[in-house]
Design goal:
Immunoglobulin-like; 5-stranded mixed beta sheet; 27 strands
Length: about 400
């Protein structure tokens, strides 16, 4: 009789362990796509080159330096041979790193390197458009790519002189992105026969900041005291309006006293900025899903730069056998300040286990990207939930019957 009771207790304990085990959540390690799988999605070979600025404007006598991006989009490393196929008369051009001139570069699979294209013009170069062509090819000659730049040379504006003041500047035209600060160096010569205080004024685009500073100092000034027949150098710091569009913007600098006045024209060429912002309306980056069933989540994409993104793509990095779709599949154009909504549908694999998974999203625009990571919690199907409840009810009923029988004995 005692042995039978011990056997009954053992059966009851075993059933309780089964119930507790059934109710415990399953923890599944996140599944990631490794680098090797990503490389399999690449073509066997592929190279490309691109100049950061395909068109620039400079004054006569100015040199040009532009970043040259060399990319390897294939699965194997490549030795890429570079050459400048077309150099206009009156110019010298070369491709270099920070320290020396080069004719080739080694680029690993799915990587890129940035070099410098440098062009130097003769002092007597005439105003006009000058086209340079850069070629790239693999060491075996199987693949090639090219990129060109058009350098527009403008006539160097003559510094205006008066009997009392002489203003000169070596670089009247500066170029860069909208979020940069531009600093011109101006030399002011006092031709009067006495020490003179000169007032400084400027006229620039609306909402731009134009300030005067002493050479190699950070404080702002509004006047210059220059000795008789003396010369003094000052800096003109220009900060563009953050939402200014790409283009050329003139700035007029005036230097004056009671006896004389002079002025000089400066120019800032903006190339625009490329910035992207992406996120969800409530800031949450998580959602629930079931095996083989689609789950939706919306996110927004905003252009925080001053240049238009002509194409915005969406790339996903997901667990194996999962599906991720976007509606729309891409944004054809995103103007500065524009915000657009995108619907993302995530479908776990049919065999996905219950637990947490990670799905990474990359929003890729022109010269700007934004990454997000979503946590997807895969839950068990509701049908299995009801089945589990039924089993638990049956087990409890069996325990009650067992206790009743043991109690009678």
């Amino acid at each position: 009789m005692r042995d039978r009771r011990y056997g009954s207790y053992f059966i009851i304990s075993f059933i309780f362990v089964l119930i507790i085990s059934w109710g415990m959540p399953m923890v599944v390690p996140c599944v990631w796509s490794d680098e090797e799988k990503q490389k399999k999605d690449l073509p066997p070979r592929g190279i490309s080159i691109a100049l950061e600025h395909p068109g620039v404007i400079v004054a006569q006598g100015d040199d040009v330096s532009i970043d040259l991006d060399v990319s390897n989009g294939g699965r194997q490393d490549e030795n890429i041979v570079l050459s400048i196929a077309s150099v206009p008369k009156g110019w010298k051009a070369r491709i270099k790193t920070y320290s020396f001139e080069i004719s080739g570069v080694h680029v690993k699979s799915d990587k890129s390197k940035t070099l410098t294209f440098k062009a130097e013009a003769d002092e007597d170069i005439a105003p006009g458009d000058y086209t340079f062509l850069i070629n790239a090819k693999t060491e075996d000659g199987a693949l090639n790519s090219s990129s060109k730049v058009v350098i527009t040379v403008e006539k160097k504006e003559k510094e205006k002189k008066t009997k009392g003041i002489n203003i000169t500047t070596s670089y009247p035209v500066l170029q860069g992105p909208t979020d940069a600060k531009f600093e011109f160096s101006i030399e002011v010569e006092n031709k009067l026969d006495k020490d003179t205080l000169f007032n400084l004024n400027s006229q620039g685009p609306k909402d731009w900041e134009v300030n005067f500073k002493p050479a190699y100092e950070d404080k702002f000034i509004s006047s210059l005291r220059i000795k008789k027949d003396g010369t003094q150098t000052m800096a003109v710091e220009v900060k563009p309006y953050p939402w200014a569009e790409a283009g050329s913007y003139p700035i007029l600098v005036k230097v004056s006293s009671e006896e004389a006045k002079a002025e000089v024209n400066l120019k800032v060429v903006l190339t625009g900025t490329y910035k992207l912002e992406a996120g969800t309306a409530d800031g949450l980056l998580s959602l629930n899903a079931y095996q083989g069933k689609p789950a939706n989540i919306s996110f927004y994409v905003k252009n925080n730069g001053s240049a238009t993104h002509n194409t915005v793509k969406f790339l996903s990095f997901k667990p194996e056998n999962w599906k991720v779709a976007f509606k729309p599949e891409r944004l054809e154009s995103l103007a500065p300040g524009d915000l657009k909504q995108v619907e993302m549908t995530i479908t776990p694999a049919d065999q996905a286990l219950v637990g947490d998974y990670s799905v990474s999203l990359r929003v890729e625009g022109e010269k700007s990207t934004k990454d997000m990571e979503f946590r997807v919690t895969v839950r068990a199907s509701t049908a299995w939930g009801w089945i589990g409840i039924g089993i638990i009810v049956l087990v409890i009923a069996g325990l009650v019957v067992l206790f009743i029988r043991l109690g009678r004995r």
